[in-house]
Amino acid sequence: MCRSLKTVVAVLIAIVACGSLAVHGQDRSGPAQPPLWLPDDEYLRWPLPPSEQAYASLSGRRIKGYINEITAISRRSRDDGNQYWGRITGTAYDRMTAEWVAAQFRRIGLEQVRIQTFETLPPQWFPTSWDVSVAGTGKTIALKTAFPIYHSAGIASTDLDPVWAGLGLPADFLGRDVKGKAVVVYGIPTPGGRSDSALSNGAVQRAEEAGAAALFIILGFPGNVTSQPTGGDRDPARMPVMMLGSDDGAAIRDMIEKRQSPKLRIRLTVEMKSGLQTASVWGVLPGATDENIVVMAHTDSFFEGAMDNASGVGTMIELAEHYAKLPNAQRRRTMTFFTSSAHHSPSGEEAGLRWIHNHMQSMFAKTALIVNCEHTSQVQTYLVGNSLVGSNAVSARRWFVGGSDRLKAIVASSFKTFGIAIYSRPETRPGGELGVVYTDAPSFHIIDHAIYHTDLDRAELVPEPGLEAAVRAFAKIIDEVNTVDMAALRVARVSDQPR
Ligand SMILES: [Zn+2]
């Protein structure tokens, strides 16, 4: 009697606990967990030195507010029913983002604010609709995280036998007949959503050459993350290639291990859309001379794109607002702010940053510094057991400085002053959007890269203290560069630098 009463009480407690967990939208399978991602005020902050109080008004909180407004455009794209969602180049949401930036530039009081529309985008790859499920003994599981990688081929609804092929290395394919089957491999993040070991070890080509009908890459983030790894101009795959979250991948593997002879059902519709437009937004703060400082940020994104690249756009807006408050005479150089899109998809030569590189050489000839605002803050995460665990620290970033030793010293000392954690070595060539223009003028950026290109790239993983440290460091670099003549910032040709 006593024992059964205890059981009833335990069941009731479990029901109450489940109910309250459901209310908080947490995992219903276990006890309540503390949050993975901490609120902004829980992060460690680098103290602002007394000598740098001029930068105190540059605010991470304001940038976070901009990020929330920009990512709302992405969420609208998702809520409008787009499976391929975000601020995707060539869509209405790309245009909304450009209009949002233009409104900010006008609010701040920049001059010559304009939206430059490009009608020359090459055909853009769009996956418009898809469904993937796996069926084993008596059970069918919808694989909600299935997401086509950039330039995947489409396929009409087809049932395929899955074949587990480890990491997709040549050794994993030995003795396995994958012809006409769905190859399933595991991709170790290197370090995040855009790049994983299966992509870099050639698993796509290997599966194609072995005659596979489709390839699934499980992104090795714990949990069930949706990802879109690649960007830019790639040869189209000849077969469907899709990413999967770890939990969805484990569901397939489990059925294989239990010898259930599972079937993967896949359907994917892909279109190449021609005649789409994209835009750059421009704004100017005149200075005392016609030499200029360029501040740029790309606007397009997969998913919410809070770090990639709402963080950069917000950083640019905050810099513009800071400098707009100074009298013209206190700005040695004119400041030119612009955005670019078609960063994650082909722009061709006559749109996006390629157009700017091709047609704005007279501007770059008088550019003392290009400030690329891209992925300026991200939580430091760790792999612990079966979880991706957050922390109260901002992660170290990839970085690049192109220019004279004087410029390099200015950037390095500003990073130290404001507590910008960086990798121990710079990029040999800058990735991200700076890669298109770094030969045009002296330049620098920091660029984080773990959570991007995934549906984890949300504002809660973009800590405000990291945004604040970055924007203050950028402002200090701009101010110090403005004390130096252009010749002392440049090397003979940036492209001639030793790599
Ligand atoms: Zn980016």
Quick description:
This protein has helices spanning 2-23, 60-79, 92-108, 170-173, 197-200, 203-209, 246-257, 306-324, 352-359, 361-364, 405-418, 434-437, 464-481, and strands spanning 111-118, 124-136, 139-142, 147-148, 155-160, 162-164, 182-187, 214-219, 241-244, 263-273, 278-285, 289-298, 333-340, 367-372, 382-384, 387-389, 398-402, 443-447. By secondary structure, it is an alpha/beta fold. It folds into 2 domains: 40-122 and 275-496, Aminopeptidase (3-Layer(aba) Sandwich); 124-271, Glucose Oxidase, domain 1.
Question: SSE layout and pairings?
Answer:
Layout: H1 2-23, H2 60-79, H3 92-108, E1 111-118, E2 124-136, E3 139-142, E4 147-148, E5 155-160, E6 162-164, H4 170-173, E7 182-187, H5 197-200, H6 203-209, E8 214-219, E9 241-244, H7 246-257, E10 263-273, E11 278-285, E12 289-298, H8 306-324, E13 333-340, H9 352-359, H10 361-364, E14 367-372, E15 382-384, E16 387-389, E17 398-402, H11 405-418, H12 434-437, E18 443-447, H13 464-481
Parallel strand pairs: 6-7, 7-8, 8-9, 12-13, 12-14, 14-18
Antiparallel strand pairs: 1-11, 2-3, 2-10, 4-9, 5-10, 11-13, 15-16, 17-18
The protein binds zinc ion.
